[in-house]
Every structure is written in C-alpha cells, then in structure tokens.
Specification:
Length: 252
C-alpha cells in the first residue's frame, strides 16, 4: 500500500513538472537543473511556480498527515496512557509516534485505497486531468472527516466565516472542514484519555491513603503505586484494550 502511494505521488509530480505523459513520467527519471536569470516566456514562469508549489506541499505534508487523518486522536490517547501510568519516558516518544503512524496507516488504508483507485489510476491512464484527479482524491478524505466531525464544531467555523448554512457536505469548503475535524478529534481523544486515567487515579488515592495511615509521609506515593499500575495494565491487557477502543471509534 505504501509503495503504491509513493509511486502515485512521484508519478504525479513528474507529470506536473515536466508536462509529460504520465506513463513516461513513471518510467523515466529525469535530471533537474536550476538556473538563475530572467524567465523566458510564460511557460518558464509556469514551471517555476509548479516547482515552488510542489516544495510547499512537501513541506506541509506532516501537517496534512496530522490534521486530515486519525493521527491526532491516536497519538493523544497513547500519550494519555503513558502519563496515566506515570512511567515518565516509557514507552519512548519515538515508539509512541511510530505506533501512532502505523495505526493511522491501518485506519486510513481504505480511504487512501479509494483515492488511489478513483483518482490516481485514471490520471495515470490519461483519462482525467490533474484538477479532476485532485478533486476525486479529496472526496474519500472529506467523507472520512465528515463522519468524525461534530456538527457543533463545523457550525462554529461556518458562522465565523460568515457563510450561509450549507445544504450538502459539498457546500462546506475544506478549509473549514479541516479545523472542525481537528478539534472534534481532540475532544474525542480527551474523552478517551479521561476514561484511561480514572482507574490509575484510584490506585494513586488508595496508595496515598495507605501510606498516610501507616505514617509513612516521606515515601512518595507515586513510587509505591507505579508497580501496581503497571501490574493492573498488564493483567487487563491494556494496550489491546486501548488500540481496540481506537479502532472501534473509527468503525474498525
């Protein structure tokens, strides 16, 4: 799946930059040279702007991955789990980010597969132009975001933008849908995080009360409760439950 997505991105970039046949763009790896000087006609300006646009899109790719996919909810919930366990840097941040990325790939795979089949394949065969391909690729992504965006959050941005009430999802611009989706994901992630925190807070309270009753005021309660938290998390198969709840939230 990842290989086909990478090939799709590379083929589209070549077809745009060199205005070539999509099949040729996939088969040939051209060389690129940059020259500083006066532009020779409108076509040179167009090519330069396309290169600048491509570099801009590549620089924004991490933000696109975070804001338009399931990554936000997943990484926030995993961070809540680590804080609830009070294990400081265990699991390491790199492990949590990698796990969140692969879970995001798993959740978003049907969406990206639909975009690949409906947008990239026809574009590669020359059946549609670039603008149509981009529009078709956005359709499954927008549908995914609409499913997980609260109406209240969407109405917030529509009202502040001064737009009329949308009649259909197609009437909602993407620049309004994306932030509404993001804050909806954050609220859902914090709701799950609260549920994760509750049993561990109970353990902390029980341990703190026991230490106070025994007069051991100098012993940090967190140091005593940490083994019990880890034991509880292992006994209930905590990682399985957390990941299962995340997948169920996306209809998995």
């Amino acid at each position: 799946m990842l290989g086909r997505l990478a090939a799709a991105a590379a083929g589209a970039a070549l077809a745009v930059l060199w205005d070539a046949d999509p099949a040729w763009a996939q088969a040939v790896l051209p060389s690129l040279s940059l020259e500083w000087g006066a532009a020779d006609g409108v076509e040179a300006w167009s090519t330069g702007l396309q290169i600048l646009l491509l570099l801009t899109v590549l620089s924004l790719a991490p933000s696109i991955l975070v804001m338009m996919t399931a990554f936000t909810r997943i990484v926030v919930v995993l961070a809540f789990v680590r804080y609830a366990l009070s294990t400081q840097q265990l699991p390491p941040t790199q492990v949590l980010i990698a796990l969140a990325l692969f879970l995001t790939f798993f959740v978003m795979a049907p969406v990206w597969q639909q975009a690949y089949d409906e947008a990239w394949v026809p574009f590669r065969e020359g059946e549609i132009d670039q603008a149509t391909a981009v529009e078709r690729a956005m359709e499954p992504v927008r549908e995914f975001m609409f499913r997980h965006t609260r109406e209240r959050d969407l109405a917030l941005f529509v009202d502040y933008a001064g737009l009329e009430r949308p009649e259909t999802p197609d009437d909602v611009p993407s620049y309004l849908l994306i932030p509404a989706f993001a804050i909806s994901e954050l609220k859902t992630a914090f709701q799950i995080g609260f549920i994760v925190f509750v049993p561990f807070v109970v353990i902390d309270m029980i341990v703190a009360s026991a230490l106070m009753s025994m007069g051991m005021l100098m012993v940090p309660p967190m140091m005593v409760s940490l083994p019990f938290k880890v034991l509880l998390f292992v006994l209930v198969d905590g990682w399985h439950l957390v990941v299962e709840s995340l997948l169920l939230g996306y209809g998995g």
